[in-house]
Amino acid sequence: MYGMEQINTATGFANAKFGSSKGQGAKGFDEPEIRILELSKYVIKFELLNTDLSVANSLRRIIIAEVPTMAIDLVEVKENTSALHDEFIAHRLGLIPLQSFNVDQFNLSDQCACSSMCAQCSVQFKLHAVCSDRDQMEVNTRHIQPLSDAPIIPVQYVNDKGIEEDPILIMKLSKNQQLDMNLVARKGNGKIHAKWSPVATCQMRKEPIVEIDQDKINRDLDIEKRKEFVALCPREVFAFNDYRNAVEIENSDKCIQCIECLRFAQANNLERAVKIAEREDKFVFTVESTGVLTPEDIVSRALQILMRKLYELGTQMKKYGVNAD
Amino acid sequence: MDNTKMNDNGLIDINEEDMDSREKPKVTYICGGCGKDNKLDKDSVIRCTHCGHRIFYKKRERKLLQYEAR
């Protein structure tokens, strides 16, 4: 069973381990480990070590579709004299990211004790905009006013220099058009609708391994051929060292397994001189938040969900007498 | 309604004579040419009484409308 020994969001997170209590997993891996490579306000890059592809992929899928967030889900239109029809605006409002740091204090609306809507499962907003004194007016997320003091508000983006960026544009109104709506935000996850997904991108890749037999390549190929070999790689994995007149590996991390170099080696009777592969126990994740949660928070929440699922599976398996280890 | 009865196919039959004797329901539309309101009934010619324009727009529903933002 996978059990997280420590996951604290900010400090203790950097080397959080989640691993089997016996020290070695089912496939003879060491303790699974996470190493953070890069962390900014909206992006986290980390390595997941000593796990199977299936575990890494389930983490990826949970990040995308099962981390709960808040999003506008119901729109009550009182007045809409704009050029856009109600459904169109409602859809746009639904896609606005809402800061969901306090998402845990809300219930999913179908699991809430109330019959339809209450403060435990919904947050109310008002959107009122009238264009009276100008030819054209932009309606943006600043026009969305919360009706309660719940800490759920549309995301305010901040750029690298810490300066607030412009709010998200919803639509435009021309003179004498107006908009009056009540909005209801609810808790949900990406499985129900992609608007609840906390991430813009969540990609996972295996680390590539590139090996070349320098002796063979630099002996059996003439200099022109060596330069050709370096140039054929579309990702500039190889470099040509002018002092040694030799091919070197510059950046194996860039390799996309296009096997151009293998084909070239084969054509020149150097089958064994170039090897490319992927590491099966190391996954590099890039998770880009939409701003609804901090990126490290998304990952730790996803790990908690994964752990809970595995725990659930373990107890159910034990109940039916299957060995859960 | 007393002027409706089921026919053999189970559909509601409306007697033409009964229909004529009743007051025809009139719906207000907005003229596409002059923008004035026009009350039109089922059989009337689609033509504005003020400007003769032949295109009309429906009025917006006045009650509160709910949409799922999906």
General description of the model:
The complex is a heterodimer of chains A (325) and B (70). Chain A has 3 domains: 3-67 and 281-319, RNA polymerase, RBP11-like subunit (Gyrase A, domain 2); 69-196, RNA Polymerase Alpha Subunit, Chain A, domain 2; 214-272, 2-Layer Sandwich (Alpha-Beta Plaits), CATH 3.30.70. Chain A contains 6 helices and 14 strands. Chain A has helices spanning 53-65, 86-94, 214-220, 223-232, 260-267, 295-319, and strands spanning 3-4, 18-19, 33-39, 43-49, 69-80, 122-130, 136-140, 144-146, 169-174, 178-188, 199-212, 238-241, 246-249, 274-289. In chain A, the strands form 5 sheets. Chain A has a 4-stranded antiparallel sheet with strand order 3-4-14-11. In chain A, α1 (53-65) crosses α6. Mean pLDDT of chain A is 88; it is low at 1-25. Chain B has 1 helix and 6 strands, in the order ββαββββ. Mean pLDDT of chain B is 76; it is low at 1-6. In chain B, strands 4-3-5 form a 3-stranded antiparallel sheet, with no helix packed on it. A two-stranded antiparallel ribbon of chain B has the order 1-2. Helix content of chain B is 9%, strand content 31%. The interface between A and B is medium-sized, with 19 and 8 residues. Chain B: This is Dna-directed rna polymerases and iii subunit rpabc4-like.
